[in-house]
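Table S2 (text version). Query chain:
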Amino acid sequence: MKLRLLTAAAAALALAFSAGPAQAAFEPPLPELNITDTYVTGISSGGFMASQLQIAHSATFKGAAVIAAGPYYCGQGSILHGLAECTGLASTDPDGIVEITRRWSEQGRIDPVSNLVGKPVYTYHGTKDPLVTQRVSDEGVQVYRELGARTAYHDTDPAGHGWPRPDGALPCGTTFYPFLIDCGNDPQGELLTHWLGAGSVKAPAATQSGTLSEHDQDRYTPGGWAQFYSLGTKSFLYTPKSCAAGAPCKLVVALHGCLSDNKFVGDRFARESYLNEYADTNGLVILYPQTDISLARGNPQGCWDWWGYTGSDYAQKSAPQMSMIMNEVRALGGTR
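Corresponding structure-token output:
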């Protein structure tokens, strides 16, 4: 019986990994907009991916915001290494990460690290986070500081592992679906102020007046099949009316965490991130790329690749998931 179960499981994994793309998505391509600057933020696995994107593509991303996550290249290509170092059982070795980052920069595997000097990086971590310890978050900030970034660190809230926003669905210390928590403050306003400067950020709109649309992700994925790399077939895009009409706007890539992609929460993160309210009053376009679960990739929770399940280059410019996101950014006009 055990042999039959193992054989059946192996066959199922082989089928999932070798089958061709499903029927083509009906979602349209992303629109080309008048994008002036590009930023990135994310929570949990999306926070790790935000660091990977900004450091690997530092010529494109003007700033980053890392929520409930740790340093760039924390997983170092191994889920066992990631579960140990990236959750806090051992040090992530920030000095070693900086050394690797500088070496990859010299080799051209990532953009020059000199681009990071003076760039704004905002980090948020809760004192009650059971998944990412204080040390891991601290070491993520240390890596950015050693690379010359201009950091801001909010680490005093009794927050669990979640995306903090005003009027979040859950109390501050909660670590539970849908991972939208309320700690009585406004980290979205904080991160935008750190990026754009004091006095440059207008108050958020009382209600969202822009459009949240769905767009095909397959066409932006290397090989044309998003699920092969544990990516969703569609992404979400929030576009204020002024940006849709051609006004110059900034692009923010916002990355959900594990158990928070379209399969788990629909468009809830895209609707309730509290970035859209700021987008309407500050000329921001918000792109919400999506992952998907993949048993073949060993990713049943739909996490972004922060340990190497898509390949050893997962934190370099050639990484398939980052390539998909960068293709979307280019389509929107975010790399001019």
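Notes on Table S2: The chain is about 30% helix and 15% strand. The radius of gyration is 19 Å.
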